[in-house]
Amino acid sequence: MTTTVAAESISAIRSAIAAGETTATAVAESTLARIAETDPRIHAFLSVDRDFALAHAARIDESVAKRETLPPLAGVPIGIKDVLTLEGMPATAGSKILEGYRPPYTATAVRKLADAGAVFPGKLNCDEFAMGSSNENSAYGPVHNPHALDRVPGGSSGGSAAAVAAGMVVATLGTDTGGSIRQPASFCGVVGVLPTYGRVSRYGLIAFASSLDRIGPFAANVRDAAVVLGVIAGHDPLDATSSPLPVPDYTADLDKGVSGMRIGVPAEYFAEGLDPEVRSAIEGGIEKLRAAGAEIRPISLPHTRYAIPAYYVIATAEASSNLARFDGVRYGLRAPQSDTLATMYRRTRDLGFGAEVKRRILLGTYVLSHGYYDAYYRKAQQVRRLLTEDFLAAFREVDAIVTPTAPTPAFRIGEKSDDPVAMYLADIYTVTASLAGICGVSVPCGESRGGLPIGMQILGKHFDEASILRVGEAVERSMLA
Amino acid sequence: MPEMERVSLEDVRRVAELGYLELTAEEETRMRRDLNAILDYVAQLSELDTANVEPMAQVSDVLGLDADATPEKASVLRDDVPGPCLDRERVMVSAPETDSVFFKVPKVIER
Questions:
Q1: Residue B1 pLDDT > 50, yes or no?
Q2: Are the beta carbons of A385 and B61 separated by less than 8 Å?
Q3: Under an 8 A CB cutoff, do B18 and A365 touch?
């Protein structure tokens, strides 16, 4: 086995460990060495804990020595976005307000990875409280896109996407509220899955917007992403919105191809504002799906243009409520020398929160405040229903929908950081699925002339991850051909 | 066009107080500019007639509309029975100020 562990698939690592060709400890050592060598240029990791990783790896090696049946992710190095809790490791959420915090419990999705034998080398950089589309809102500094170091990796799960793209880990977990898995996957040239709302428990996810937040995997290929999804999905008594629907084997139908599948192409996602190189790459991908036997159907999702405004009202309203818990009382930062409780709250939040988080708390508080609730919040929730009904109607005609993941390839660090509306438009093709609760995946679908990755977004109906992964596998295969 | 602006400096101060945020004068000006830019963009929602549309707060609100919906698709509540809690010591170790039983805070009652 080569020293570049992340060039190996999950099944290759697991079987090499099972066959005694390598050990989980050797895989972990190689991962840590790769991070030490690569990450100073990328800054994907906010914390790396050598002892923590090696202790998990040693447990896998003990299992091998005892000839026990190895779990599905035995010895596989997986990175975790720093908005998810993992007992024994920090969880900053990219914010100064949680600097030094070590949560006393583990998120359900992370615990399921641990139970499946995964090894965690560290926690991954992200926009503060997952609020951002470029990773520039991290209080600990931006992540650099491995394909072009002067460009953003996308956000908010920029560290999760970049760590896979740079070959530091085999897979990662990210979170997606308005596009925060799919858009960085597109910018970094990796696979990123947005599971259906309710498919993966949110317990242990530091909440941004609870009706939109989802946890999902990044990997270098569709199959590995499907394997990780299968491990983290399922009902959890600790999240009342998690679905009791049984979890299928997401790898079972991957190789079935797209022959006979009906794939919708919505005109609204190919309108003004789409970069010509992105358009040409996605149209090329669609032609390959047609050549592979899919029936391509033009469709319309007429309320698409209202998704960004509706999203920013709903997401900020929920954020203003969720972030009220950061008050300096129970964990994290507390501003010193405050003589009253109210002063302590205000100073702590002033010191601890960055500009984008304050902007969203203010906007969310404004749209929920007396006199504006109906005009903004209620209105946005009504538009959310119209957008969702667009998708439900479309999925009566088609099995999946394909679009560009983002209107452009990765932009330059600093390019949009002074214009919040321009930054929000980076999510124009991703917020729709977030509001509707449907599933999606971004898969690499070519490059710009300058060598920047371009992602195709494949959207599917609620709880039909199997279909979008099957289309994704076909796209991946057509790119290799 | 200050008279056209939706959000005044007073509005920014009011919501900052509601959200327990302390803003510098510079931040107040910047936030006023940004909130106005964002709300100008949000204003296009008023083009849509939503008089007969029910608000959608959660994804579970619409799963019943799906043609092949099953009752299992909707989320369910667990039984309300007490279970084990996090150990106090492990929780209190994260507190900025504690006597190991309670969280300590500055005085609450102002005179």
A1: no
A2: yes
A3: yes
pLDDT at B64 over 80: no
B contacts of A345 (beta carbons < 8 Å): 20
Shortest Cα–Cα distance, B39 to chain A (Å): 8
Contacts of A332 in chain B (CB under 8 A): 94, 96
> Which A residues 264-323 touch B at CB under 8 Å?
303, 305-306, 308-310, 312-313, 320
Amino acid letter, A34: R
Cis peptide upstream of residue A156 (ω within 30 degrees of 0): yes
Tokens representing A8 are 């190996």
Interface test with B, best of A96, A366, A386, A465 (most B CBs within 10 A): A366
Residue B62 has pLDDT above 90, yes or no: no
DSSP 3-state of A211:
coil
Cα–Cα distance, B9 to B15 (Å, whole number): 10
Q: Which residues contact residue B81 at a Cβ distance below 8 angstroms, ignoring those fewer than 6 apart?
A: none
ipTM (interface pTM): 0.89
Contact status of A65 with chain B (Cβ, < 8 Å): no
CATH topology of domain A9-61+73-232: Amidase signature (AS) enzymes (3.90.1300)
Percentage of chain B exceeding pLDDT 90: 63
Of B19, B31, B77, the CB nearest to A240: B77
Q: What one-character DSSP code corresponds to residue A301?
A: -
Task: Strand A78-81: give its sheet, edge to edge.
Answer: A45-48, A122-124, A78-81, A171-176, A214-219, A191-194, A439-447, A453-460, A400-404, A262-266, A295-299
> Which class for A50: exposed (0-12), middle (13-18), buried (19 or more C-beta within 10 A)?
middle
Phi, psi for A139 (deg, rounded to 5): -70, -10
Contacts of B27 in chain A (CB under 8 A): 355, 358
The CA-based angle A59-A204-A457, given to 5 degrees, is 95
Amino acid of residue A145:
N
The alpha carbon of A136 is separated from its chain's Cα centroid by a whole number of angstroms, namely 16
Q: Please list every residue in chain A whose beta carbon sits closer than 8 Å to the beta carbon of residue B37.
A: 419-421
Q: pTM, whole model, 2 decimals?
A: 0.96
User: How far apart are alpha carbons A432 and A340 in whole angstroms?
Assistant: 44
Query: Hey, are the CB atoms on B31 and A389 less than 8 Å from each other?
Result: no
Cα distances from A49 to residues A31, A34, A415, B97, in angstroms, run 12, 14, 33, 27
pLDDT of residue A1: 37
Nearest by CB to B103, from A329, A424, A437: name it: A329
Over range A114-142, report the average pLDDT. Answer: 98
Rg of chain B on CA atoms, in Å? 24
Show me where the domains of chain A are located.
9-61+73-232
Please tell me which residue in A156, A160, A243, A434 is annotated as part of the active site.
A156
Q: Whole-angstrom Cα distance, residue A167 to residue A154?
A: 17
Give yes or no: A256 in active site. Answer: no
